């Protein structure tokens, strides 16, 4: 049975915990990439906005060793100059990396400069982690993921407290002169960490957003239920898994795709929208990006069938070594100083 396509650009969610009404597109474009992929990333962003009608762009201070934000900024600047879109029509997200856990304002200002923007729509704490500040002698910049050269173990700042980052973001957001941030939130928090933030009476504005890895193999059911109960919108990153998009090969997903004569990718995106979740896939394939336009109304049974994958065969794709100290992570993937 064929389904009627619906425009992704029309799917929006109203955020809670904001001073003024803020609506976020449910479908955004992720920009995580390597430093040597700046030009293709920039072009992908332009195709996403110009050809697919995407209005939500997700980036971060650490992507590409701090270089991706410059590509994002150039893309936005060119799109505005070409009158494809106005700044007000875009929803831009960036994040504070743990090597600046105690310097939220400095991180934000660096991001704004790189993005060539006066404000971001959403500022997130990237990880509830505090890294030591160690300068890379080759670049003069801080290591993003500092490791001990002898043991290879991640180097955390034992004097740090991850909640400090959010408290500084809260102070920025609630400053009487704030014009730089429209909403704040967190990424990669577990329920216990969210509970701590929600229980802290010194924090004026609770998170509007939680961004986590979320896909059929890691559907984060309990975390999503907790967020829904507390008015926190959930954004899923890595919706297709990791390298090679393994989620698109799942038989359950392909059965649903075949039944409706749509693609496995369409099924995954539609699963997110049906569950009232936001999603930020990424791609450097320009032809694929141009087709990121539609979603379809899956049945409740189809959604439940996809949900069951994460119950029967749970698997976390993003599990780098520095995450081993966090609930739900094992840190199985080795990373290096960068």
TrEMBL record:
The keyword Protease does not apply. Keywords: Oxidoreductase. Residues 28-309 form the NADP-dependent oxidoreductase domain. It holds the Pfam family Aldo_ket_red. Coiled coil: none annotated. One of its GO terms (molecular function) is oxidoreductase activity, acting on the CH-OH group of donors, NAD or NADP as acceptor. The keyword Transport does not apply. The active site is at 63 (proton donor). This is Aldo/keto reductase. It comes from Hanseniaspora valbyensis NRRL Y-1626.
